[in-house]
Structures are given as C-alpha cells and as structure tokens.
From TrEMBL:
This is PA2169 family four-helix-bundle protein. Pfam families: DUF2383. It comes from the Bacteria. Residues 6-112 form the DUF2383 domain. InterPro entries: CHP02284, DUF2383, Ferritin-like, Ferritin-like_SF. Transmembrane segments: none annotated.
Amino acid sequence: MNTEKKAIQDVVDICHDGMKGYEKAASEIHNEEFKTIFNRLAQQRKLFIEELKADVRDQGIDIDDSGTVKGYFHRNWLDVKSSFTNKEDKEIIEEAKFGEKEAVKVYNEALNADVPKYIKEKLEMQRKLIAGSIEQLNEFAKETV
C-alpha cells in the first residue's frame, strides 16, 4: 500500500472508530446535552469519512471504511465492562477525550505523509475540528460533571 493510501486509510479508520465510539457514548451517557453533542460528533466523523473517500476516489484510490480491529475490540470491551459496572458520565467523557487525542495523532501522521496538497488542506481542517471538540468536551465537562 503506498504511503498516501495508508495515511488516508488510517485517518478513515480512526474516524470510523470515532463515529462508532460516539454513537455508543451517546447511548450510554445520562446527560442529554452530551448525548446531543456525541450524536453530532458521530455525524461529523461520518462526514469526514465521506469527504476523504470522495477525494481519493477521484484519484482512483479505494478506501475501506470499516474501522480498525483495535477500535472494535475497545468498544466490545466497554460493552463487557459496562455490563458489570454502571458507567458514570465523567468516565464516558474521558474516554471520548482520549479517542479524540488519538485521532489528532493519526491526523498528524497523515499530514506528514506524502499526500496531495488539497487532501492535506482537508486533513488540517478536520484535525482543527477534532481539536476543537477536545476543548468543547473539556469545557462542558467542567460545567456539568
């Protein structure tokens, strides 16, 4: 797999994991405001995936959007864990922040890869939105938890 495709695939994978993670978080969290935020962020990640897939499709590159095995097992571990304990909203928010920080790392790696300028611009914009969601989660967590 060439470096461009791998970089984009890694970003799409982390976005898919984020989308599924936010859907799960929205279903588990008690705070209605966070439920709305998590659903919005899940939709945002879905949009990120579609944008990137369309950009690389124009170059003849096919990207898989099924996520990573690591993300799948993390979500399933959380299912098992939550069946034994009642998750607090604070824990769910902390897991969301952790996932966003991991996403920023993946985006940084992709931005250092050999990808066309117009895709780098899209990646930079998406990374800024993810960084903004970390700030938003921090602020709302202070107010509500």
